[in-house]
Design a protein that fits this description.
- The complex is a heterodimer of chains A (116) and B (114).
- Chain A has 116 residues and is an all-beta fold.
- Chain A contains no helices and 11 strands.
- In chain A, the strands form 2 sheets. In chain A, strands 2, 4, 5, 6, 9, 10 and 11 form a 7-stranded mixed β-sheet that branches.
- In chain A, a hairpin with a 5-residue loop joins strand 4 and strand 5.
- The radius of gyration of chain A is 13 Å and the shape is globular.
- Chain B is mainly beta and 114 residues long.
- In chain B, the strands form 2 sheets. In chain B, strands 2, 4, 5, 9, 10 and 11 form a 6-stranded mixed β-sheet that branches. A 5-stranded antiparallel β-sheet of chain B has the order 1-3-8-7-6, with no helix packed on it.
- In chain B, strand 7 (61-65) and strand 8 form a beta hairpin.
- The radius of gyration of chain B is 14 Å and the shape is globular.
- The chains are: A mainly beta (116), B mainly beta (114).
- At the A-B interface, strand 5, strand 9 and strand 10 of A face strand 4 and strand 5 of B.
Chain lengths: 116, 114
Amino acid sequence: DGGITQSPKYLFRKEGQNVTLSCEQNLNHDAMYWYRQDPGQGLRLIYYSQIVNDFQKGDIAEGYSVSREKKESFPLTVTSAQKNPTAFYLCASSIAPFRQVNQPQHFGDGTRLSIL
Amino acid sequence: GQQLNQSPQSMFIQEGEDVSMNCTSSSIFNTWLWYKQDPGEGPVLLIALYKAGELTSNGRLTAQFGITRKDSFLNISASIPSDVGIYFCAGHLRYGGATNKLIFGTGTLLAVQP
């Protein structure tokens, strides 16, 4: 089945550690996104990428980094500079606007990151 | 970042009741999307709206793109226990640029008592 796979489902981080969250999609989408969700809040955009080897900061990029070496993959690294990393992280993908504008984003099942 | 005004924040209803929730903005939108999120899962797209005035159904769900392009509502008829979850509206701003960035509402928590 086509879809977006995020792993792991749960992740624990010690203070001062970097951790990397995986996101893979087989929908042949050019655009991919990372969101952070905190309890009782909507989704906030961390980073997005419209094409391989290119990515842009979203609204809350500080303390995070990404790479986009392959169309199918968009890993997110939560660095030690992110002071409040405990949250639910969601990856999404869509048809890119250079192909068709205003396309819905489709989401993975998320990774819950907690600090030990 | 900008967020949409979504209401109500939460609803607690009996099975079989109809439900209505809405999103409003001071800005004009090109699309309105409605997602449902189950606990511990990612949001799933329910309905996508692309034209002002458009009314679209998906089973017991009906959503409309407001004529002013600044609002949208979602109705659920004859609610059942599996309708429980958080419902989010989202949309593309009219002048959002070539980024496909979505603006999200803060969500409506729906609880259905059997």
